[in-house]
Design a protein that fits this description.
It is a single chain. By secondary structure, this protein is α+β, with helices and mostly antiparallel strands. The protein has 3 domains: 6-161, Beta-Lactamase, CATH 3.30.450; 222-304, Helix Hairpins (Orthogonal Bundle); 311-453, Histidine kinase-like ATPase, C-terminal domain (Heat Shock Protein 90), CATH 3.30.565.10. The chain has 9 helices and 13 strands. The strands form 3 sheets. Strands 1, 2, 3, 4, 5 and 6 form a 6-stranded antiparallel sheet that branches. The chain has a 5-stranded mixed sheet with strand order 8-10-11-13-12.
Length: 471
């Protein structure tokens, strides 16, 4: 069975809501109308009983005269009957003809308990509302001490209520049909942009071209916001695909060079036999290829990894351990950074710091001093800066330093151009960033605790500028 569409659900919900509302109204209106009509009938019965009681008290001789007990209520006759104290008939209205009003509980209450009472009775097959009231006991009237019984038919009330219920039912059906029609028209118009988005998405799925964009409706509503969000996602996918293509192309190019050298040296050895220089070239090419593959795998792992959660890492201790591997490296802890810690993956952070140190050693002066600084940036961030004694990068070169496979025109050695890209990926995965300025390369990370609590009020290190980055 196919799923119900969004339009059908909206139409059904609108029609159901209208039906429920009209049904509730249909229950309330007849109830209120019945209460109003019943109250009006009871008031008329009581008023007519009072009139007859006055007549019996003031001019008892008129009770038996024709027309004295007649009355009208909304086009239907009121039935009046007067009884003596023994319940015998004294007079009755002409509307009764030869019939007698039923002498039920209300009549007995009026005669015996001397209290007025209402009752619902039947006059033959006709439903009536009956009110019995006691008459005064003084005077010479034959009705003295008796009771007056006034009744009115309820058939009209029942018919009115039945017509009202039928009308409400018809209104409910008409309202539901109208609501369904309007909901259909409105949802068709409202869902038109969604259909366009769906068609555009299917076209992009068919062509697999992330450079295409979905149509954005002119209205500023949720559909327009959805279209813009999806287009932003497509733009992100397009950038990711372009980066992937460039990465594959660059990796292929970088791998081709050492592989070509290895194949040439292997062919030379095959023709001329083992030669120390050729074997050394083969060994160097294999080492370069292994390093490149290791960097590629590391970068791929960083791209695929989720944001770092890891564990609490004592950053000064980690940096000190990595810096201790190079005898010409000096570690500087700025005030307040002695207890700096971050949350992350120790091995990844060690690799990032090691890559910065390796970059400084390879591109700085031979046997030159390398300074590693750990300092605080504000109250909630910490930085690691590696600085060599070389001239460093120009501003234009620094803007490209962390790009994949980028190498400075003045670079020495045969690096892969991936070391700093790995540093940036690790820093960003830990919620930070990496930057370069001259011979200074900096990683900034969010601190795990508020550094202002442990920072002494001492001047900053001369290695730091106002923002905590080395000059």
């Amino acid at each position: 069975m196919s799923a119900i569409g969004l339009r059908a659900r909206v139409v059904a919900a609108a029609a159901a809501a209208i039906v429920v509302a009209v049904v509730l109204l249909g229950l309330a209106v007849p109830a209120l109308l019945e209460r109003q009509l019943s109250g009006a009938l009871d008031d008329a019965l009581q008023a007519r009983a009072v009139d007859v009681a006055r007549l019996a008290s003031a001019t008892p001789d008129l009770l038996t005269q024709a027309g004295a007990l007649e009355g009208r209520l909304t086009g239907g006759s009121l039935y009046v009957q007067v009884l003596d104290r023994r319940g015998r008939l004294v007079a009755r209205s002409s509307a009764l003809g030869s019939r007698l009003l039923p002498a039920g509980a209300a009549t007995r209450t009026a005669l015996r308990a001397r209290q007025g009472a209402f009752a619902n009775e039947l006059l033959g097959t006709e439903p009536i509302r009956l009110f019995a009231a006691p008459l005064g006991e003084l005077g010479a009237s034959p009705a003295a001490g008796g009771a007056v019984i006034v009744a009115g038919t309820t058939a009209d009330t029942r018919e009115t209520l039945a017509r009202t219920r039928r009308l409400v039912l018809l209104c409910a059906l008409a309202a539901a049909a109208l609501a369904a029609l309007l909901a259909t028209l409105l949802t068709r118009r409202a869902l038109r942009p969604l259909r366009r988005l769906s068609s555009g998405a299917r076209a992009i799925t068919t062509t697999a071209d992330a450079s295409e964009r979905l149509p954005v409706p002119a209205t500023r509503d949720e559909v327009g916001e959805l279209a813009q969000t999806l287009n932003a996602m497509l733009a992100s996918l397009e950038r990711a695909r372009e980066n992937e293509r460039r990465f594959v192309a660059d990796a292929s190019h970088e791998l081709r060079t050492p592989l070509t050298a290895l194949r040439g040296n292997a062919a030379y050895v095959a023709r001329h036999g083992a030669d120390p220089a050729a074997l050394a070239d083969i060994e160097a090419g294999a080492a370069r290829l292994a390093t490149l593959l290791d960097d590629l795998l590391a970068l791929a792992r960083e791209d695929a990894a989720a944001p770092a959660r890891g564990e609490e890492v004592d950053l000064p201790a980690l940096v000190a351990e990595v810096a201790a591997l190079d005898p010409n490296t000096e570690l500087v802890l700025e005030p307040g950074a002695e207890n700096a810690s971050v949350r992350g993956e120790p091995l990844a952070l060690e690799r990032a710091v090691g890559n910065l140190l390796r970059n400084a050693r390879e591109h700085g002066p031979a046997a030159g001093q390398i300074t590693v600084t750990v300092g605080a940036v504000g109250d909630d961030r910490v930085h690691i800066t590696v600085q060599d004694e070389g001239t460093g990068l120009s501003d234009e070169e620094a803007a490209h330093a962390f790009e994949r496979f980028w190498r400075s025109p003045h670079a020495r050695g045969a690096g892969s151009g991936l070391g700093l890209a790995i540093v940036r990926s690790i820093a960003e995965r830990h919620g930070g960033w990496a930057s370069a300025s001259g011979a200074c390369f900096t990683i900034e990370l969010p601190a795990l605790r508020d550094l202002s609590r442990s920072r002494p009020t001492t001047p900053s290190s001369p290695l730091s500028d106002d923002e905590g980055s080395p000059k």
